[in-house]
Amino acid sequence: MRASRMDFFGIGPLEIVLILIVALLVLGPHKIPEIGRTLGKTARAVKKATFDLTAEVTKEIEATEKSALKPEEDTPPAPEQETAPNLEEESPLSPEEEVESQERHGV
């Protein structure tokens, strides 16, 4: 079987004509244009939504790439904060030596 240039989803021109004739018989001549308009509007809405989504994703990717490439010099450094010594950590000193050390340092 030879592939035709007019194949539409694997359906040849004769099959398309047959489908249109059956649709005309089932739905009637007044309903076909209305269905065509509805399908056209739906296809247009899907195309617009796809374009909008693609544009939004592209914009987000570009913004992310810009912020990743932007030098960190523009942001001020975080202020240094003194941290209290963590007394919960184990000390290599014995309890008596630790008390002496704390007394010497005034803690």
Please tell me about this protein's structure.
This protein is mainly alpha-helical and 107 residues long. Helix content is 61%, strand content 0%. It is built from three helices and no strands. The chain has helices spanning 13-27, 31-69, 95-105. The model has no long low-confidence stretch (mean pLDDT 79).
Any descriptors?
single chain; 107 residues; rod-shaped
The fraction of residues in strands falls at: under 5%
- Number of β-strand runs: 0
Report the principal-axis shape: rod-shaped
Biggest sheet overview: none
The H/E string reads: HHH
Radius of gyration: 37 Å
State the low-pLDDT regions, or none.
Answer: none
Q: Helix proportion of residues, in percent?
A: 55-70%
Mean pLDDT: 79
Q: Note the total helix count.
A: 3
In whole angstroms, the N-to-C terminal distance is 94 Å
Task: Give a quick summary of the entry.
With 107 residues, the protein is an all-alpha fold. Helix content is 61%, strand content 0%. The chain is rod-shaped and about 105 Å long.
Topology:
Blueprint: H1 13-27, H2 31-69, H3 95-105
